[in-house]
């Protein structure tokens, strides 16, 4: 039949949602329980504490049934009032989407513009903050890992720029494609709202998101006037779960309990970061090798900002990334990420976060190289060897 895929397991190399470990899948397949059942409450409370450890915070957390966009929206409506101004650091498609959401909610947006291939200049961030001597900017919004470009942002340097200029704005950080893959330190970096989602580093299905919230942000929440109901933290604090307005999605917590066990007990959070950085280096070694002979290149031109959870790969002029992705998917059952927004057709992405090991990465890289041969995309063959050398 049309669109039938070759036999064998699909290699899923998207940067999110990501592969779900079998034990997490099985744990989530749990019969319904009352979310007020004391047995469930014990699991729930332990999961909330575990999420705080992954966020590296001792402060507050609020959860939502909804994907990352829900937590984005929750962070705005709980902290801001109509006409407030936010400063958004441009990183790529997701920073632009967050800015668009702010505008739709009646928030004024200022941006620090950036070259998507080099990343935002922290000196420009500092200048934008210094210029705002009236402290009109109520929140600075950063995307810790821009999933569209494969670039990470040094959040600690943004915090340092805020401190150096004495700017009192809240710091909001999107950790959707970094949490549980790249080191993120909410309290140490003075992040006031950390936006996270279930479907990437936490290795769960899509559909639950959350915000780590500082005590300072909770104070600011008390005077925020943007309309809210489902997302209202004050409503949530009146409930036993101190979160969720409405039914608690219990299955997620059986999955999360197991995911936290894998992350914290079986592997260790710091080892999770090391594994991601090791696999990422292998992917970059392959792409740098292919780039000879007018082949595809790393989209990121700033090695200090390379992302260890996703690599965006720029096609040679005149070659369509989506055509290459279609060959990989239809002939070989390897699912690669596409280019987003203006990068559509120009870039493809290899997600290397979550439940992933060397054979999965090498299999994906080998198949990308095969697909390039089949699709007639110029490249220097032997990228897999370069990846093996990086791993060995
Ligand atoms: N922010 C980043 C960095 C993302 O990668 C994504 C999704 O990929 C989002 C926000 C939006 O999250 P969701 O698709 O879960 O609503």
TrEMBL record:
Assigned keywords, A-Z: Aminotransferase, Pyridoxal phosphate, Transferase
N6-(pyridoxal phosphate)lysine, modified sites: 200
Annotated ranges, domain Aminotransferase class V: 29-324
Transferase as UniProt keyword: yes
Co-factor(s): pyridoxal 5'-phosphate
An example Gene Ontology molecular-function term: L-serine-pyruvate transaminase activity
GO biological process: glycine biosynthetic process, by transamination of glyoxylate
InterPro entries according to UniProt: Aminotrans_V_dom (IPR000192), PyrdxlP-dep_Trfase (IPR015424), PyrdxlP-dep_Trfase_major (IPR015421), PyrdxlP-dep_Trfase_small (IPR015422), SP_NH2Trfase/AEP_transaminase (IPR024169)
Membership in a protein family: Belongs to the class-V pyridoxal-phosphate-dependent aminotransferase family.
Protein name (Swiss-Prot/TrEMBL): Aminotransferase class V-fold PLP-dependent enzyme
Organism per entry: Plastoroseomonas arctica
């Amino acid at each position: 039949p049309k669109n039938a895929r070759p036999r064998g397991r699909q290699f899923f190399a998207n940067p999110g949602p990501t592969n779900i470990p079998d034990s997490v899948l099985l744990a989530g397949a749990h019969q319904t329980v009352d979310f007020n059942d004391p047995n469930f409450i014990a699991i729930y409370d332990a999961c909330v504490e575990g999420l705080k450890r992954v966020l590296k915070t001792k402060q507050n957390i609020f959860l939502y049934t909804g994907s990352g966009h829900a937590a984005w929206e929750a962070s705005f409506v709980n902290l801001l009032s109509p006409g407030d101004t936010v400063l958004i650091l441009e990183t790529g498609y997701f920073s632009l989407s967050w800015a668009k959401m702010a505008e739709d909610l009646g928030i004024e947006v200022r941006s620090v513009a950036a070259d998507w291939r080099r990343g935002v200049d922290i000196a420009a961030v500092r200048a934008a903050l210094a210029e705002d001597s009236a402290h009109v900017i109520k929140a600075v919004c950063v995307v810790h890992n821009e999933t569209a470009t494969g670039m990470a942002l040094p959040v600690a340097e943004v915090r340092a720029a805020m401190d150096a200029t004495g700017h009192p704005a809240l710091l909001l950080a999107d950790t959707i494609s970094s949490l549980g893959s790249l080191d993120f330190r909410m309290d140490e970096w003075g992040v006031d709202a950390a936006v996270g989602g279930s479907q990437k580093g936490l290795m769960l299905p899509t559909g639950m998101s959350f915000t780590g919230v500082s005590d300072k942000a909770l104070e600011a929440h008390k005077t925020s006037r943007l309309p809210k109901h489902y997302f209202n933290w004050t409503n949530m604090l009146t409930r036993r779960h101190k979160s969720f307005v409405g039914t608690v999605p219990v299955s997620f917590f059986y999955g999360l309990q197991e995911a936290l066990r894998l992350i914290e007990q079986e592997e260790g959070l710091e080892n999770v970061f090391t594994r991601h950085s090791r696999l990422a280096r292998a992917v970059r070694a392959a792409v740098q090798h292919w780039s000879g002979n007018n082949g595809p290149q790393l989209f990121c031109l700033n090695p200090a900002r390379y992302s260890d959870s996703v690599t965006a790969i720029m096609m040679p002029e005149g070659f369509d990334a989506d055509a290459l992705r279609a060959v990989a998917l239809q002939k070989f059952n390897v699912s690669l990420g596409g280019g987003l927004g203006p990068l559509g057709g120009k870039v493809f992405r290899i997600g290397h976060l979550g439940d992933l090991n060397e054979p999965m990465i090498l299999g994906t890289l080998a198949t990308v190289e095969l697909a390039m041969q089949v699709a007639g995309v110029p490249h220097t063959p032997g990228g897999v060897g370069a990846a093996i050398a990086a791993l060995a």
